[in-house]
Amino acid sequence: MFPRCYDMRMVLYGLPCVAKAEIVSRMDFVEHISESEWLGTHSDVDPSELAPEDLGDLRRRFIKEIKDHRENIAVDTCFSIPSEDGFRTVFTDDDAGCFDVFIYVDLAADLIRDSMERCDRTRASIEYIESWRDSEISELQSVCMALGKEFIIFDPKYDASLEFLRGLFDGSILTAPQVARIAADRILAATDSRVILISDGDKTLTDYDLTRSLDVPILIDLIDVFERDRYTTFQFWAVYRLYRNIPDLDQRKRRTAEAAVFNRALLDDLGQIDSYRVVVTGGNEDLWTYAAARTGVFGMVVGADTEAHRNMSQFGKALIVRYLHDAGRYVIALGDEVVDLRMLEEADRGYLIAHLKTNPSVQAAVSGGTNLKQPSSNEALFDGVQVVGSIHEDAAADMDALMG
Questions:
Q1: CB 3.0 to 4.6 Å from 116: which of 121, 194, 293, 339, for a disulfide?
Q2: Per-residue pLDDT tens for 347-376?
C-alpha cells in the first residue's frame, strides 16, 4: 500500500445519463455526494434556470465545501452543459484545484444516446455526443497534465470495476503521479548521470509487442479496452489484473524475453549516447527486465507489476520525465504509440520510432506540426516529422554542451 499523506478527493465526470450517480452510489467504501443534488437543495429555483453568474457563485460554494472536507470523498458532477450553440463549460479553476483524481465515465456513443432518451432528454445525434465527449476528455486531459494530477477514463462495463475504484482509495492501486514518482526516484537513486534516456519497449525496441507474445490466454478484448486510444491507469489495470493467476508466469516471461528480437540498429545508435538508459513500458516490468538485460544497453526497467497495483499509463510516462526535469536531468525519449506522445513531448528531445508501418493515430496527432523527430533508420516514416541521420548525432550538440 502506498502511504498517503492526504485524504483523496475524487471526481467523476461524463455526459448525462452515463450512470455516474449510480456508480458513486455503489461505492459503499467512501462518502459520496452528487453535485446536482447539492445544488438543488441549496437553490430556491432549478439550478438550470439560474443565470451563469449565479450558477457560478453556487458552484463555488459547493467546491469550497468539498475542499474543506477532511475525509475521502467521491463526487459526481458535470464538466459542461448543453447550450444553444453546442455546450458550455462549467468547469473552473476552482474545480481543477479541488480534486486529486479525475475520472471520466465513458460509454459508446450509441449507449449514451439511448440512455439520454430513457432519461427523457432531447434526442442527440451520435455526432453531437462524440463531439461533446471528445471535447470534455481533451480539455480534462490538458488540465490534469498541466497540474500533474491523475486523469482516468473509466468504462464501468468491465468486471470488478468497483474493485479498481476501491483500490485507488485504499492505496492498493497507485495513481499515475504515484507510479511516476516511484519510478523517477528509482532512476535518480541509480545514477548521477545528467542525461537520462528513456525508451518505450514494445514495438519501439522490438518490431512486435513482446508483452502480448507471452503465450497466455487472452481473457479480455484488448482492442475494446484501449478503444479510442484510452491509455489511462484503469485500462492497464483491467488488462494486467488478469495476469495474476496465470500459472508459470515467470517462466513464460523468461522464455519470451529469451526469444525477443531487437532492433539492433536502434540499440547501436542509443549505445553511443553518454547517458543512463531506462526502458519505460506499459507492459510487464519483469518481462522487460529479462529482455533488456539481453540488450547490454539499458540499466533499468520500469513498468506494470505482476499484481497490477502499479501500472504505467500515458500520464505516468510523461510525469516521469517531468520529475526527472525537476531534479535537473536532461531527458531523451523514444516511443511509437499514442501512449508515448506526452512522454516524448515532455522530453528535451523526443523521437518517434516506426517499424513495418506508421501508427495512424500517431500520424494524425503529429499532422498539425510537431517538435518531435525520427531517425532515418525507421523502416517507415511519419509525414511531417523531421528526419535525422541518427539519434546520437542529433543529440550530440546538447551532449557537448552538457558535458562541457
A1: 121
A2: 999 999 999 899 999 999 999 899 999 999
What is the phi/psi pair of residue 72, to 5°? -55, 140
The whole-number average pLDDT for the span 90-103 is 94
Q: pLDDT higher for 216 or 100?
A: 100
Is residue 320 within 8 A of residue 180, CB to CB? The reply is yes
Interior CA angle at 360 toward 358 and 364, to 5°? 115
| φ/ψ of residue 277, rounded to 5 | -110, 130
* Model pTM score: 0.94
Report in angstroms the alpha-carbon separations of 115 from 107, 110, 121.
Answer: 10, 9, 9
- Mean pLDDT over 280-308 rounds to 95
Q: If one looks up domain 9-170 in CATH, what number appears?
A: 3.40.50.300
Domain ranges of the chain: 9-170, 176-220+244-403
The whole-number pLDDT of residue 391 equals 96
C-alpha grid cell for residue 117? Answer: 432518451
* Secondary structure in 3-state letters for 8-50: CEEEEECCCCCCHHHHHHCCCCCEEEEHHHHHHHCCCCCHHHC
Instruction: Report residue 403 as a C-alpha cell.
Output: 558535458
Alpha-helix residue ranges (DSSP H) falling in 34-175: 35-41, 52-67, 93-98, 109-118, 126-147, 161-170
Closest CA to 141 of 301, 371, 365: 365
pLDDT band, residue 396 (cuts 50/70/90): confident
User: Whole-angstrom Cα distance, residue 152 to residue 235?
Assistant: 9
For residue 3, pLDDT beyond 50 = no
Q: Do domains 9-170 and 176-220+244-403 have the same CATH topology?
A: yes
Alpha-carbon distance of 179 to 182, in angstroms, equals: 5
Check residue 6 and give its pLDDT: 54
Q: Is the backbone of residue 62 left (phi > 0), alpha (psi -120 to 50) or beta?
A: alpha
